[in-house]
Each structure stands twice: as C-alpha cells, then as structure tokens.
Write a structure and sequence with these properties.
This protein has four domains: 242 residues, no CATH class; 150 residues, no CATH class; 107 residues; 106 residues, SH3 type barrels. It is built from 27 helices and seven strands.
Length: 772
C-alpha cells in the first residue's frame, strides 16, 4: 500500500502549529514510514519459522493443527494486516497533530470497573488485554528516557499541552493497539494470537528505541527543546533496518542484538508474570486494561538511588528485635519515601518509577502470603520476614525474579520455606540444625547483600547441600521405620491367619481332647506361623502343616469303622514324624514333646479299639483368644523412634477380640463423612500438624500406608516414626481438629504465592486498592 507522504493540516484542525514545526512533524512522519513497515514486514518473515517450531513441539494433533492453520491464515492475510497496521499508525499520528493529545489511542472507553463488571469480561478478552499491556509495559520500561524527551518536545510544539505515553502517537501504546486492530479480523485462535503478540513484542516493541533516537535527534537539531539531556548509549536498531537506506546514521556500529536470547515456547506466552501482576494491580486501582499509564513527565529516581535507600533501610532494620517481635512486615513504602525525600531537593521533585512501585506492591503481597502460610511455623515466618527488603532489591535489580523459576534468590527462598515445613519448636534449635542454618542465612543476607546476586547462588548451593545430606539421612531412617512397621503388620497378619485356621478346625470338631486343643493353640500355631512367614501360604510346606493339623484332629476321634482303624494304624507313624519335624523347627521343648506323644499314644490306642477318646469342653465355653488385632489404631512414640513431646502411647479405636465362633448380630455400618474420605485418600508425603492432649503440636509426614489394613505410618522430618493410625483413627483426629492437613507442601512457596496473588487480584480488580 502506498502511503501518502504528505501530512494534512486542513482548515478544520483544532491545533495551530507554527510553520517551522510542521516540517519537524513531517520529518518524524517519514521516520515512522521508514521504520515500522519494514520492521513489521521482517516480523512476518520470521513468523512462519516461529509457528513451525511451535507446531513441531505441539503435544497433540489439535494444537499442531491450530499452528498450521495460523500459518496459512497469516500468509493469506499478511498484506491486509500490514496495510491496516501502517494505515492505523499514520491515522493516529495525523489525528494527534490535528486534535491534540486529548485523543484516546486505544480506541477503547476508559472507565472504572466494579467487581461485578470485571467478572463479566470474557476470559479470552482479558488474556488478550493482558498480553497487549505486557508489551506496552516492556516498551515504556525500556525507553522511558526517550519517551520523556519526545513527550516534552511534542508538548513544546503544541504550546505546552500535556503529552503522556498514553496519548503520544508513536508510543508503545499506539503501536501495540494499531497491531491489535490490524489482526483483530483474522480467524486465529487465542493461544496462537498470544504467540504472535509475543513475537511482535520481541521484533517490534523491543527495537522502538532506535526510532525514538532518530526522532529526538531530528527535533533537537531543529531547535525544539535542544537542551534535553541526551542518553549516551544508543538504542539497538532492528535487524530489518540494518543496512537500509536512511539519512540517519548511528553514532557507532550497532552490535548484533537479541532482546530475548531465547526462542519462543509455550511457556513464554505465560512467562510475563510480573507484567500480568502489574496490569491486575492497575485494574485493582480502578484502571482497566488499556487505560493510560502513569505520566512520565515527572522524572523518576534512578534505580541506584532506590537501591541505596533500600540498603540503608536494610542495615538500619533491627534484625534481632524484628525476630523477637514475631512475624511482622516492615512498611517499606513509607520508609523508602522518607529516605528518598531526604536526598531530594525542594526544586527537583522526583517519583519512584512505576515498575519499581509495582515491585514494591508485589513483594509486599508475597510476604503477606508468607506470613499467612499455615505450612510455616511462626518462628520460621519471623526469620523469612526479614528478607522482605533484600528480596525487593532483587526484584528491582532483576525483573526475572518473578518469572524465572530458576532464579537463585527465588530458589533459595523456596528451599528455606520447604525446609521449614516439618519444623516445630519440638525439633529444637540445636546448633547446625535447620533453624540455625536458616537463621544464619537470613542474617548473612541482611548484613552483606548490596547488589551482588551471586550471594544468593552461593547460599542456595550451601543450603541445598545441607538439605541433601539431611534428606539422605532421613530417607534411611524412614525406610527403616517403614520396614519395621511392614514387618510387624506381616507378623500380625500371619498370626491372625493362623488363629483363623486353627479356630475354624476347632469349631468344626466340637469334642477334642484338651491336650490336643492345647497343643494346637500353643505349639502347632508357632509351627504354622513360621511356615507362613518363611515359605508363604501358597507353599507345599504350608499345605502340609494344615494337613498335619487335620490329621491330628481326625486321629483322636472315635473310629467305629474297621477301615478307619486300619487307616489310623497306617497314619500314626507319618503323623508323629511330621509333628516331630515341625516342632523341632521351632525348638519345641523336648520334655513337653515326649509328654505330648505319650498322651497321643493313649488316645490312639483307645481309638484303635473303637473306644471314644476323652473329650474336652466345648469351644464356646472356653474361648480361643486371637492375637492382638492389626486393626487397632495406635499413636506410638518412643525415644528410639523419635517421639513427640508427650512420650505416651495412645490407642485410637478398639481392639478386635473373637471370643466365639457363634454368629453374632452385625453392627449397623457407619456412614462415612468428608473426614473419612480425607483419611482414606491422604497421599504419601502429605504433612499434618498434630495436637497432643497437652496442647503441644508436632508435625508428621505420611510415609507409608498398608494396602491390607490401611494403617498409616507417620514420620518426622528426620525420618523417625512418630505415629501410626488406622484410617478410622486418623479420621477421628481430623474430625476433632487434632490433626490438620498442610496443603501443597510439594509446590514451591513462590509458585503458590504468585498463583494466590494473581487469583486474588483477578477477584478484586475494579475495587479500590487498600491503603499501603
């Protein structure tokens, strides 16, 4: 599309420009026409490669298809989009010089949103608005000096009319919304459109500084506010403009420049978390997406001035007093403003940069979340609260702190919080323990951190090594505790099974000599137990042990039939041999064995003669007591196992005793509630805070759950056993408030905090922000 190179100053204009300024306005228009069309053309040349890479990395066919469809759509609509963008930019530029800076460059109404209004905004519209405002924020942050100079010069040509970034026709706001309007009619899905916006930010917005330098040079050389301080370092020029024919020549050869250093990925689309938080904060203050941003007409404090003021506050903050007073936050904003005013002259007013203001708000919200985090003990919160000012300095020095999960300061904060999850006062503050380590790290940061971010990497490496050593030791102890508990459960299961097998046989044969009953209960049960543990219940040895028990019972029953007596006569040698071998395996008392066999001989002789053996009492009148049930729920603790403070064992639930084989009336089944469901579905690795009878609290991690009984083993942060509960017992503690599940302990603190902050801001956007 051939654009008219002559700007129209018709008779209907409301702005009167001096003749010498008209030439300057026309010259800046030429700079626009020489720069932006070429840069946007270069953008589309790279979009094919970008979308192809995204399609190649797509995780499903639907996603891949959407990228290929977008490639095809962009190829078809490219010329139309470029023409629409170029026309939109020129239209905004000419309208500005006709009507003045009162125009709204976003072409969207600016109004305050209530919470109800905000909830009605379509999610896709909100995501798109946030993406647009992210690129605007980046452009204004990168080129605030150049924009300030242009605002002053444009204002001078308009007889002092106030010009701000929101109304400047060449600002990131005007350029971003021109591009948004240009692609608004394309049939492209939102996720792909967000990728395009990201590419536009990297290939167009990031290189606006070179165009701003040209305009400022032209206007300054034309005598329009020529004394404005010129930034010594020139901005990089887009690759699309290098070597292009232009009257403008940079002061020095521009080096190759890549503002991102990384290719676009799906994660990049969501990575501008800080900018998202900025825009949500603006909405919370009553500024909708697309509203004019804060004026840059008032100069801002240099980052070094803000950092020096924060360092002064950091060193004057009484650390010991802060820790003793508990988990409280310092009023950073008030302290910072007071400190900065002390170095500011009366005639030279400055303001804190909007980006730094937002960083203060976000850091304040972050540490408010930390103080409200139920996963952390109050003493640990007091330690972490002392890092509020140092972390704000990190956020000002490096904006990647909010979006880069691998940032050393962020990893250190996450590790400190993670180590604190299982800690309570019951664990003590021994030297070189977790609390001592956290305390020393906090003190060193407060004492030493100025601006060198490598300190956080050094401290994180040291603390990570300490945690790894602790983790290995805890894992060994935890495995040992699990093995012991599993062994006990296996033993109890085996005992219960042996009891059931013997009791079943005694129930089927109501009249058995007392000596045989006693032998099965006290002697042969140990043989069966050893076989079940050693060989298993599917083994020939187990089947043989059951067969010997059956044969023994049958052998002492009356034999009226001749064939049975002959069978018994043949059975006795092998029966006695089998019994002797089994009893020898458990080192059965030989004197008792001899006595047993003598009594058996007497019964066998009587049975061979067809005489009834001496009978024993009926089972129902003399119960067979089972082993201690594995279904009991116990909170066990001992000095050896790493007990909580009370040191007392507690039984939660009732012991099951089978006193009779007679059928009993079934109890009415209990109706499960939400606490039963929580206890049943609690995952291994979950942390709970337990309250003992004396009110003292301790923390325990679910280490292991039995697949048979559901019994739960809990350990402390050192891997030592502190409690064991059945699902019913655990549900009762949850129901009574004596156990509380700590949520999302595996999710890093910063991730949880930022997610909570975005969620809270989305809900409250449109309301007046609370006073700082």
């Amino acid at each position: 599309m051939a654009l008219n190179n002559i700007i129209s100053f018709g008779s209907a204009k409301s702005v009167e420009l001096k003749d010498e300024y008209k030439n300057a306005v026309q010259a800046c228009r030429q700079v626009l026409l020489k720069n932006l069309p070429k840069v946007v053309e270069y953008l589309f040349e790279k979009m094919d490669d970008t979308l192809y890479r995204m399609a190649d990395k797509a995780t499903n066919n639907s996603q891949q298809t959407s990228y290929f469809d977008a490639m095809r759509e962009l190829r078809i609509a490219r010329e139309s989009i470029e023409n629409s963008f170029n026309t939109g930019i020129i239209k905004r530029y000419e309208q500005f010089w006709r009507e003045g800076p009162g125009m709204n460059l976003t072409e969207e109404p600016v109004f305050s949103l209530t919470e109800d209004d905000f909830s009605l905004i379509d999610n896709e519209d909100l995501e798109e608005s946030l993406a647009i405002n992210n690129m605007i924020a980046k452009g204004e942050s990168l080129f605030f000096r150049e924009l300030y100079a242009l605002d002053q010069r444009f204002s001078h040509m308009l007889n002092g009319a106030k010009v701000e970034d929101g109304s400047n026709p060449v600002s990131p706001t005007a350029i971003a919304y021109s591009f948004k309007d240009a692609i608004s009619n394309t049939d492209i899905d939102l996720p792909v459109k967000l990728v395009i916006y990201k590419q536009f930010e990297q290939e167009v917005i990031a290189y606006l500084g070179g165009m701003y330098d040209q305009m400022n040079d032209l206007l300054g050389n034309a005598g329009i506010v020529p004394k404005l301080h010129r930034h010594a370092k020139r901005n990089p020029v887009s690759p699309a403009m290098r070597g292009a024919s232009s009257n403008y020549q940079p002061d020095a050869q521009q080096p190759d420049y890549d503002p991102t250093n990384l290719p676009i990925t799906d994660a990049d689309v969501q990575a501008e978390l800080f900018s998202t938080l900025q825009n949500l904060l603006n909405m919370r203050r009553g500024q909708p997406a697309g509203a004019q941003r804060q004026s840059v007409s008032v100069p801002v404090f240099e980052a070094a001035q803000v950092l020096n003021a924060l360092t002064s506050l950091q060193h004057t903050q009484p650390l010991d007093q802060t820790i003793r007073s508990g988990a409280t936050l310092y009023d950073i904003r008030t302290g910072l403003e007071t400190t900065l005013k002390a170095v500011e002259s009366k005639d030279d007013k400055h303001r804190i940069d909007q980006v730094d203001e937002d960083a203060i708000d976000v850091i304040s919200m972050l540490f408010e979340f930390i103080l409200e985090d139920r996963n952390l003990h109050e003493a640990m919160k007091a330690q972490l609260a002392c890092l509020q000012i140092p972390m704000l300095k990190v956020a000002i020095l490096d904006k990647r702190f909010f979006s880069n999960k691998g940032h050393p300061a962020r990893r250190l904060l996450n590790n400190l919080a993670q180590a604190a999850v299982g800690w309570t006062e019951a664990n003590g503050r021994e030297e070189d323990g977790v609390f001592d380590r956290v305390s020393k790290i906090v003190r060193r940061i407060v004492d030493e951190f100025e601006s060198d971010l490598s300190l956080f990497e050094e401290l994180n490496d040291q603390f990570s090594a300490f945690l790894e050593t602790e983790k290995k030791s805890a894992k060994i102890a935890e495995n040992r505790a699990t093995q012991v508990t599993q062994g006990k459960e296996q033993l109890n299961q085996a005992k219960q099974m042996v009891f059931d097998e013997i009791n079943q046989r005694l129930a089927q044969h109501r009249q058995i000599p007392e000596v045989v009953r006693g032998f099965l209960r006290e002697g042969w049960k140990d043989v069966m137990l050893l076989v079940s543990l050693k060989s298993g219940t599917d083994s020939p040895e187990w089947k043989n042990a059951l067969l010997l028990a059956d044969d023994l019972i049958w052998s002492v029953e009356p034999k009226a039939d001749y064939a049975d007596r002959q069978k018994l006569l043949k059975l006795i040698p092998s029966l006695l041999k089998g019994l002797r071998q089994g009893l020898n395996n458990i080192s059965y008392n030989q004197h008792q064995l001899t006595s047993l066999f003598k009594e058996l001989q007497t019964y066998h002789v009587r049975c061979l003669r067809g005489v009834s053996a001496e009978t024993a009492p009926i089972i129902g009148t003399d119960p067979v007591t089972p082993p201690t049930s594995v279904n009991k729920s116990a909170s066990t603790s001992s000095a050896e196992e790493g007990e909580p403070a009370s040191g007392k064992s507690q039984l939660v639930g009732e012991e099951i005793v089978l006193e009779s084989v007679e059928p009993t009336e079934e109890e009415t089944p209990k109706v499960a509630d939400a606490y039963d469901e929580q206890a049943r579905t609690l995952k291994s690795g979950s942390w709970l805070e337990m309250t003992q009878e004396d009110g003292e609290k301790y923390r325990a991690k679910l280490s292991w759950r039995s697949n048979v009984t559901g019994a739960c083993l809990f350990v402390n942060r050192k891997g030592l056993k502190v409690a064991e509960f059945t699902p019913d017992g655990l549900a009762m503690l949850l129901r009574e408030g004596k156990a509380t599940i700590l949520g999302e302990v595996d999710k890093p603190l910063m991730d949880r905090a930022l997610d909570a902050m975005v969620s809270a801001l989305r809900k409250t956007s449109g309301e007046a922000s609370p006073s700082a």
